[in-house]
Amino acid sequence: xxxxxxxxxxxxxxxxxxxxxxxxxxxxxxxxxxxxxxxxxxxxxxxxxxxxxxxxxxxxxxxxxxxxxxxxxxxxxxxxxxxxxxxxxxxxxxxxxxxxxxxxxxxxxxxxxxxxxxxxxxxxxxxxxxxxxxxxxxxxxxxxxxxxxxxxxxxxxxxxxxxxxxxxxxxxxxxxxxxxxxxxxxxxxxxxxxxxxxxxxxxxxxxxxxxxxxxxxxxxxxxxxxxxxxxxxxxxxxxxxxxxxxxxxxxxxxxxxxxxxxxxxxxxxxxxxxxxxxxxxxxxxxxxxxxxxxxxxxxxxxxxxxxxxxxxxxxxxx
Amino acid sequence: xxxxxxxxxxxxxxxxxxxxxxxxxxxxxxxxxxxxxxxxxxxxxxxxxxxxxxxxxxxxxxxxxxxxxxxxxxxxxxxxxxxxxxxxxxxxxxxxxxxxxxxxxxxxxxxxxxxxxxxxxxxxxxxxxxxxxxxxxxxxxxxxxxxxxxxxxxxxxxxxxxxxxxxxxxxxxxxxxxxxxxxxxxxxxxxxxxxxxxxxxxxxxxxxxxxxxxxxxxxxxxxxxxxxxxxxxxxxxxxxxxxxxxxxxxxxxxxxxxxxxxxxxxxxxxxxxxxxxx
Lengths: 318, 278
Known about the structure:
Chain B: Keywords: Membrane, Transmembrane, Transmembrane helix. The complex is a heterodimer of chains A (318) and B (278). Chain A is α/β, with parallel strands linked by helices and 318 residues long.
């Protein structure tokens, strides 16, 4: 079969992707790459175009221009796609009167898998005891488990999850995090979307941040964290003298805030206090701003189109 | 491809819809075959001549044509149910292409249409026995011929339904469209055509053609089986002419309807490939 000739890398490539729904441009010239062996967070506020992008990647929505590949092939040439990529999407559901087991058996047959695989998957997602219940009676958490089980039927190399934490209890979220990490550790690819950085911060290695249908940042989460240097806010008796002393010590990234305090970037409280003492400048108050990823994320996603990329966050924009 | 067909059969038999439509379909076939709605006028006129006319056959055939509507419905509801319950996403994620899904559905629902056709033949036969008191039955060959054509018509209607469902997508819209068109619109349209001198057109409309493939054969067999003294009767001859000569021969009607079913499937395929699943 022609479709079987994918390169087997597990790499996802999104290239110049654009989608217009009538007058609305949902996704605009979006490009990013997702490498195997890592969990990549696909982040952006609601309405940023995340779901549309994932649906284009999975052949469910036709791009207006540009394209996507998984294993070097567009989705419709994967042959038996369930064995390459599994997906848990929002607005993907079950027939309310069909049992969980019957649901899985339908799709196992479609992917040419034996029925034993259904039992394995039921065990994997912890639905064995509920297998004969109708999916319509399931809680949101159980539905997510069934959706994940369906995605895993074909033992795929790539897993795509759209806001998977929605509806999961804390226990389910913890379980899902562990699962995603172990899945990626085996050299496979996980792409997980969320509108909250905090939700995936502990799970992801790489992030792709989009807003307004465009990429704002792509790279390791660690680089993003490092690019946000801490800042010391200090209220000196003599601002002039302190700025001079700081400059002498090599700290030139200093700004005067609206309330009269100085913002010293790239330093910490101890260093600023020592410099002030040596210069004989009294300090009335001082605090250190923590590197706040969430704030950075908000800045990236609320900015005007293009600003985020122009900002250049270290080596992350590769 | 075999896997996708198997998947479609599993989808069909893992919910209640298949028997939820089969039972009313079979009962309505039984009811029409027993009561003989429109055939009543034919019955009254023929009975004026002779009590022993084999009316059971046209009664049976009319019942079966009503039953085929349920084959179309099961195709429509089965396909659009995937959109309604949002399972179409998973279906497309586990198939090589959208057309392969459509072909698998066509095979599965054609099979289900055959099951509906057989049930319709059985219940229609029962209805004809009840309705005619066990009298007036034609030869077994004529009876089996109507059964066979009825089953083929049921399969074609299921195929038509799958195509319509794939074309429309929205379940309520597709079901209402099917019912309104077959039960109201085509009748009105045919009336307008006839009163404007285009009486040769209505037999080429889909619902009429789909019904005529069974009804025309039944009427031809019915009139052909009548004793000679009846066929020559001044009452029967014009009746025969009016009922059988307005429509094309049964197999021509079958081909016309097959054309509509194919057209519907092609339209469904095109629409299905364009549709964004959001």
